[in-house]
Amino acid sequence: MTTLELMDYDDVVARFDPVMGLEVHVELSTNTKMFCGCPTAFGAEPNTQVCPTCLGLPGSLPALNGAAVQSAIRIGLALNCSIAQWCRFARKNYFYPDMPKNFQTSQYDEPIAFDGFLDVTLEDGEVVRVGIERAHMEEDTGKSLHVGGATGRIHGADHSLLDYNRAGVPLIEIVTKPITGTGARAPEVARAYVTALRDLLKALDVSDVRMDQGSLRCDANLSLMAKDAAEFGTRTETKNVNSLRSVERAVRFEMTRQAALLASGGSITQETRHFDEATGHTSAGRRKETSEDYRYFPEPDLVPIAPSREWVEELRGTLPEMPWERRRRIQSDWGLSDAELRDLVNVGAVDLIAATADAGAPPAEARSWWVSYLAQQANSRGVELAELPITPAQVAAVIALVASGDLTKALAREVVDGVLAGEGEPADVVEKRGLKVVSDDSALYAAVDEALAAQPDVAAKIRDGKVAAAGAIVGAVMKATKGQADAKRVRELIIERCS
Description:
This protein folds into three domains: 9-311, no CATH class; 323-433, no CATH class; 441-497, Arc Repressor Mutant, subunit A, CATH 1.10.10. It is 39% helix and 18% strand. It is built from 18 helices and 14 strands. Strands 2-5-6-9-1-10-11-12-13 form a nine-stranded mixed sheet. Helix 4 links the parallel strand 11 and strand 12. It is elongated and about 95 Å long. The mean pLDDT is 88.
């Protein structure tokens, strides 16, 4: 086995200019598939959400999902795209076992939305405009599960299983124009773009944008060109990168790998590559096809789409407040400095805090939870803050329990831990774990008296006016009540007993 050669990153950017192209596939949250009436719910038993149309059986005919077209137009408008006055579907021909028709119904040279842009903000506030080449409609493929191998891929597997539930789910593929001039910040720009796009799609409410479930996937194209070169280099396409962190890592790795290969006199193979989350490395997939290989031709079973200008403008009126506009408003409402807002944006907390406040929590309390304890939990799990299995409404419920005196802050963390562990809503966790604050004074008096009796020297100091010594008794009572007492009330009772 040959040793993988990588170039130091600083040397890469000194000798080469990276060129990126990002293709993001978005599963739409429609109730039914793109061309049939099968449901699209995630997690159903394999091959239970299928019909003759999405299985490609002879004699079946597609019928276009109008809600998917509406979502596609709204996405295009939000990305500052032009909306086609006339477009149509095409057949993209290729054979893979997870595509039961042996072709994918997609759009080729006539996308529904084209020539747009998205401005993305980097961690230091720099804004980079990313051009959008197109946003087109297509259908998703099924899912292959390779069993018996060490890697989960077909090589070395004993057998493969196919689940066609996902085949035919509506997709929008958003393709950027070549992203140039980013230099050393290319990986950061890639992550910032996918983050901004995810936030935008979530605001539009067209997808749940769950990268962990595959409803948002990024293909990262990367090539390098020497500083004095006039043409782009040969690109690779790292397929189906499924987290924001991995998008950044995949681009960075490919830069160091390709640079080392070019510097040694080698050449880049135009191919797809797979990203390994554990190692942060990419590995070769298949030689990359060209458009000619797919033998596109117009789909004969679907009529062209010709959205009227009146309908397009009607849909423009349904666009929500954009994420960046909402952040400017929040900054003003909360009195945040640019640096404070940027810090919240960088950890992905702004919208989560706002949603928690909308659910009834004081903004300051919501901010404290998301940027401290919950951020720690996200870091320890190696996930984005928004990927934690807890909702803003649940965080607001925990904050309300603390405000009502039913929980202490320490107990509240235990409740959050229970929610993160899948134990139910905050109230359910409180009940199951027995975490409610002990507010019965008679029970607290008994615990205080027991602690004072166990530490007579400390009790004497308190009676002599050395109130600071009460801390030891408070600690003993909190231990006896398993942290379920209100420390402030316990202290009051201790002083009362010793007066």
